[in-house]
Amino acid sequence: MSTSRVTLSPSRTVADLKELRALTGDANGAQRVAFTETWSAGRRWLRRKLATLPVEIHDDAAGNTWATLRGTSERALLIGGHMDSVPNGGWLDGCLNVMAGVEILRRIASQYDGRPPVTVRLVDWADEEGARFGKSLFSSSACAGYLDLDEARALKDKDGVTLPDALRACGIELERVGESGRELKNAAAYIELHIEQGPVLLDLDLPLGTVLGTFGVERHAITFKGQAAHSGSTPMNRRRDAFLAAGKMGQEVYTITGRHGGVSTIGSCTTKPGIVTSVVEECRITLDQRHLDAAGLARLLADARAASERFAAEGKVEVAWDRIWQIEPVHFHPHLLALCDEAIIETCGKLHRLPSGPLHDAAEVARTGVPTVMMFVQSLHGISHNKIEDTREEHLELCVAAFDRLAEKAMRWVASTA
Ligand SMILES: [Zn+2]
User: Fold this and answer.
1) Were 211 and a residue from 76, 117, 374, 375 both cysteine, which residue would form a disulfide, CB within 3.0 to 4.6 Å?
2) How remote is the CA of residue 415 from the centroid of ligand 1, in Å?
3) Rounded distance, CA 252 to CA 256, Å?
């Protein structure tokens, strides 16, 4: 029997993350946009890291990579993350979770001589960010069975490439992505570590938090249609200006959100014909609304719709709404919340519970009924989706240690409930 055990080495996770940053980032930040060459390079690097472990590795029908450490029981503890990033993204979003998972696999494989009491699986979800096609959680929702195929078939990136074509280039058939659902067959618990991406833990001066659940989201494209007209010859009172109506929405969403709580964002605005000498014929804005409470979210949406119709009528333009995406608020599993609390208190003595504003793959898994929890680590500046995204190295090491404790507790819980 080998006597040299691999013990958990949180500093190795930090070193792995720096290596990945050097490989797939540039002066503007991380560039691992899903279904691009840099993303593929990042995933090949991940496979090389996993190759030294006694794990089986495969990609499922939705392009998610699974590394499976077989245990005595088929019942599985899943550890999730995502290698993909937004363009010019941060160095930790998504890949911290994956690399912490790799470190935990190293520790468990060694401690249990390659045969833990339950099966432990690391999943790298293929497209979490939805940066290219505006479809967040694409691959985990495919796996969880919540992907709307009709909607997905119609998606295009800014160059007009369709989602099915982009997927095919990576060896993925859109029509078959639902087959990835079989991966959840023996899933008994799902855990995910993530940077907070907001300022709550920073403001409380706490390194770690237990995540209660994720906000529900309504995400829509709103298109106002008026009439193009010469900017010099058309009197102001004769215009049917699509931008005027869209512009009023910018102020209105602040008023509506002030009334009902939650958060709302108009994240993009495009105009046609989009030239300096024409009144805007068509203006498309996107609206992202989030709330922890389902009724609150419904109120945000209803008020925004009513306002858009009012502004359209005032400006004699038309308005159409297209839902890009939607998810209900998700609340995590009470027993796993308690285990996460324990792991954090044992690691750093102080605890805070908070909801998640950003979306996470964990929400899709939780919706299928698999007991799920997430752990957050403090983000410096409270900023993410930006190259300045950062977390103190001592906090990165703490979170790997705490997350490993959670993994061990969750594994024992899964074993005890078989
Ligand atoms: Zn993320």
Assistant:
1) 374
2) 29
3) 6
How far is residue 289's CA from residue 304's CA, in Å, rounded to a whole number? 10
Rounded to two decimals, the pTM is: 0.83
Compute mean pLDDT per 10 residues along the chain, 418 residues long, and list them. Answer: 74 98 96 94 97 97 97 98 95 97 98 96 95 90 94 92 94 96 97 96 97 95 97 96 98 98 96 97 97 95 98 98 92 97 97 91 96 97 89 98 98 93
Q: Which residues contact 60 (CB under 8 A, 6 or more apart)?
A: 66, 143, 179, 180, 182, 183
For 378: left if phi > 0, alpha if psi spans -120 to 50, otherwise beta; the answer is beta
CA distance 378 to 402: 13
The rounded Å distance from CA 137 to ligand 1 centre is 10
Cα–Cα distance measured from residue 313 to residue 136, given in angstroms and rounded to the nearest whole number: 32
State the distance from the centre of ligand 1 to the C-alpha of 216, rounded, in angstroms: 16
Maximum C-alpha span of the chain: 88
Q: Rounded distance, CA 332 to CA 36, Å? A: 32
Query: Rounded to whole angstroms, how far apart are CA atoms 59 and 40?
Result: 12
What separation in Å is there between the alpha carbon of 194 and the centre of ligand 1?
Answer: 7
Contacts of 245 (CB under 8 A, 6+ apart): 224, 226, 283, 308, 311, 312, 314, 315, 317, 319
Give the Å distance between the CA of 383 and the centre of ligand 1.
12
Residue 58 burial by Cβ neighbours in a 10 Å radius (0-12, 13-18, 19+): exposed
Please give the full DSSP string across 344-359, using - where no structure is assigned. Answer: HHHHHS---EEEESS-
Report how far residue 400's alpha carbon sits from residue 404's, in angstroms, rounded to the nearest whole number.
Answer: 6
Count of alpha carbons within 13 Å of 143, Cβ hemisphere only?
A: 30
DSSP state of 92: S
- The answer to whether the CB of 375 falls within 8 A of the CB of 409 is no
Q: The tokens 């919540």 sit on which residue?
A: 146
